[in-house]
């Protein structure tokens, strides 16, 4: 730069650095603006930014005679405007020395002794606040690097943060971030040397910056989408046209998927209908229109969940539970499949009526189910990394943890390979099994071993503990890796993590505040309680004296002068015992969870993943199994009768009128006693065939059921087969 002599190219500090080959000049924009002996005498398109070339050369010659009071070199073109002050300096030197340059009116400059300062109250001068922009701590002191909003009492900024914000927002959008005041805020910031360029905001200048706002939501969110071309397919003026929720507009459905005949019919998504139902604004006319639509089409809308306004069955009409079964519909001359287009495979998806549930699910339960569905989709996406190449693990049923650790540490182990399980040991059949059921059983045993291992502490919910030997052997990393592989390759939900441990993994330990419930050590918990519930300063000091060695080892010693000091002390102890003490195991555990990208997805979707890490998996219900299994049948009549018996049997099992459980049925069909978070592959199916007894094909998750004339025969065959299969497997 011809004015300051520096080669720095930092637009935020010195303005844009421009080179003009025709004039043989290179200059910083701010150096040009703030030079004391030059004025903008030309138009904007003349010279450089309106400064004539002859005037610039004269200013360079004038400055060459002046010595900078900071760096002691010639070329100081800027002078302090304070009366009788003779200091001169280069612009970069002035910035370094904390001079103030006012980018307004006459572009005045003030040296470090005469610069304007903001007036702070003495009372708050020793406190700290957060910078409104970067959220880091800022001291409430009259410093060059600290600026206070003139319109808000507790709005503080770093000068650097505010300058970056001004350059980005421009004069039209630069305002107080708290109260949105523009005039008063800009006037004060200009006085304190913040440059506010006369330009539009940077986000307004981006090409197609708001293009996404012009896009309409085009996706079918119905649980069982019937469109063969996918959920995103939209064909206007046809049954495959997507209709958006009339209330929120953020959910959609194909007309055919919700049994709507016309685009003009109103449609609300499940979330909006639930809100209306709770607020009492779900009108009778809406209910009548829905009922009429169902009656006209001969089937209920295959929505994600039943309408919140559907009537409940009376206590004395248990047999009416089957009113929605295909058999009863058929007898009333309304064939459920007569107007419903079936996929090419001639299969029909059965959905339980809300009459089959004793009570509607609570909002919390619905929210958890939504989160688990979201996790399932995420894990299925991660499962795409798993290739067909297999890795065999020899698992000793007598010592699952040791044999699993040995398998995971073998040189050729790759978490992206498909895992095969070969159980060995007492009473094992020495058979390698590639089915999901075998893997699920292995991972279930492994997670149970982990939960009760020395790596975790706590009763119902667990936190990491400090095991120096385990840390030395890198077991925390292996535990994290095992959990990641388990989730992606079909293992069960965990359900035993504390909220504190989960938050440490997702948000980082520095952003988590532990609670007393996280302390598993009875002695430490008792100490914290004694401090927390001290009701006088003397008793508090006495307790601290008694715990002196513990507090010193934890680094929590602090002077106790008032009773309020106990709160800080309790927080320090909790932070040390629950988090800082196990920071090394926690970091190692996090590294293990990064396997297959699981931790990254947890951090992107924390609410969804907390449903499988911190909450026990939901107990199976007849409705869950009915939704899980898709019915296939060669004959339409067999399908209707078989579906009737199947749904009735599930209801009997759930109500305790059978000798088997719903878990037994799922285990018989898939080899898994619970639904893994990643779901099943392939999806479970039910086939009605001309066979004598039920068959569970665990390799394909297929339940083959016999076609019988009466429900009693169907029930007896189901229970006989499942009980005997369990008996044989146990033996």
Automatic annotation (TrEMBL):
Keyword Glycoprotein annotated: no
Pathway: Protein modification; protein ubiquitination
Keywords: Ligase, Metal-binding, Nucleus, Transferase, Ubl conjugation pathway, Zinc, Zinc-finger
GO cellular component: nucleus
Gene Ontology molecular functions: ligase activity; ubiquitin-protein transferase activity; zinc ion binding
Record bears the keyword Membrane: no
Main location (coarse class): nucleus
Compartments, as annotated in UniProt: Nucleus
Residue ranges annotated for the PHD-type domain, each copy included: 1-115
Name of the molecule in the record: G2E3 ligase
Highest taxon listed in the record's lineage: Eukaryota
Cited SUPFAM superfamilies: FYVE/PHD zinc finger (SSF57903), Hect, E3 ligase catalytic domain (SSF56204)
Organism: Eudromia elegans (Elegant crested-tinamou)
């Amino acid at each position: 730069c011809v004015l300051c002599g520096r080669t720095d190219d930092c637009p935020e500090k010195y303005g844009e650095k421009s080179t003009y080959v025709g004039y043989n000049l290179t200059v910083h924009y701010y150096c040009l603006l703030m030079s004391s002996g030059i004025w903008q005498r030309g138009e904007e398109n003349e010279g450089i930014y309106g400064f004539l070339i002859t005037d610039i050369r004269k200013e360079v010659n004038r400055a060459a005679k002046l010595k900078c009071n900071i760096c002691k070199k010639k070329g100081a073109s800027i002078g302090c405007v304070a009366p009788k002050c003779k200091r001169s300096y280069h612009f970069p030197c002035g910035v370094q020395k904390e001079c103030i340059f006012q980018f307004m009116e006459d572009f005045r400059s003030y040296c470090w002794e005469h610069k304007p300062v903001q007036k702070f109250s003495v009372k708050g001068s020793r406190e700290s606040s957060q910078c409104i922009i970067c959220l880091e701590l800022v001291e409430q002191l009259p410093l060059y690097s600290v600026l206070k909003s003139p319109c808000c009492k507790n709005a503080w900024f770093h000068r650097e943060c505010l300058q970056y914000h001004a350059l980005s927002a421009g004069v039209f959008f630069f305002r107080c971030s708290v109260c949105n005041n523009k005039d008063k805020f800009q006037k004060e910031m200009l006085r304190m040397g913040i440059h506010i360029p006369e330009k539009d905001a940077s986000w307004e200048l981006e090409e197609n910056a708001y293009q996404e706002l012009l896009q309409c939501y085009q996706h079918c969110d119905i649980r069982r989408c019937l469109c063969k071309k996918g959920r995103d397919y939209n064909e206007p003026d046809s049954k495959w046209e997507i209709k958006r929720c009339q209330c929120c507009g953020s959910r959609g459905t194909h007309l055919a998927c919700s049994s709507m005949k016309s685009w003009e019919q109103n449609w609300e998504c499940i979330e909006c209908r639930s809100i209306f139902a709770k607020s009492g604004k779900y009108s009778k006319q809406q209910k009548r229109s829905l009922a009429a639509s169902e009656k006209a089409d001969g089937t209920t809308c295959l929505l994600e969940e039943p309408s919140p306004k559907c009537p409940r069955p009376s206590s004395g009409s248990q047999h009416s539970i089957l009113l929605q079964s295909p058999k009863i519909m058929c007898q009333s001359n309304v064939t459920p499949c007569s107007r419903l287009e079936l996929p090419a495979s001639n299969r029909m998806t059965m959905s339980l009526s809300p009459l089959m549930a004793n009570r509607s699910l609570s909002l919390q339960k619905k929210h958890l189910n939504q989160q688990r569905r979201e996790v399932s989709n995420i894990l299925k996406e991660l499962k795409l990394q798993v290739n067909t190449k297999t890795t065999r693990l020899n698992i000793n049923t007598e010592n699952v943890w040791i044999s699993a650790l040995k398998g995971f540490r073998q040189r050729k182990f790759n978490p992206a390979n498909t895992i095969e399980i070969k159980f060995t040991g007492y009473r094992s059949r020495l058979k390698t099994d590639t089915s999901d059921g075998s893997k699920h059983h292995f991972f279930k045993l492994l997670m149970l071993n982990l939960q009760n291992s020395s790596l975790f502490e706590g009763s119902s919910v667990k936190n990491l503990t400090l095991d120096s030997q385990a840390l030395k052997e890198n077991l925390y990393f292996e535990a994290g890796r095992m959990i990641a592989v388990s989730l992606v390759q079909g293992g069960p939900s965990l359900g035993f993590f504390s909220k504190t441990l989960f938050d440490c993994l997702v948000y980082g330990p520095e952003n988590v505040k532990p609670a007393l419930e996280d302390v598993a050590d009875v002695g430490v918990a008792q100490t914290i309680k004694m401090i927390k519930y001290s009701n006088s300063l003397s008793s508090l000091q006495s307790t601290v004296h008694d715990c002196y060695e513990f507090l010193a080892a934890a680094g929590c010693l602090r002077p106790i002068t008032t009773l309020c000091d106990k709160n800080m002390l309790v927080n320090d102890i909790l932070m040390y015992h629950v988090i800082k003490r196990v920071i090394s195991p926690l970091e190692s555990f996090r590294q293990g969870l990064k396997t297959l990208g699981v931790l990254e997805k947890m951090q992107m979707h924390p609410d969804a993943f907390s449903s499988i890490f911190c909450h026990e998996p939901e107990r199976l219900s007849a409705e869950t199994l009915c939704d899980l299994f898709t019915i296939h049948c060669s004959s339409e009549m067999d399908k209707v009768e078989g579906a009737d018996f199947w749904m009735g049997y599930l209801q009997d099992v759930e109500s305790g009128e059978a000798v088997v459980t719903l878990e037994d049925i799922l285990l018989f069909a898939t080899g898994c006693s619970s639904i893994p978070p990643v779901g099943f592959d392939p999806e479970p199916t039910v086939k009605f065939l001309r066979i004598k007894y039920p068959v569970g094909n665990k390799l394909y998750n297929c339940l083959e059921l016999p076609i019988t004339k009466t429900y009693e025969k169907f029930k007896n065959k189901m229970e006989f087969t499942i009980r005997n299969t369990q008996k044989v497997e146990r033996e």
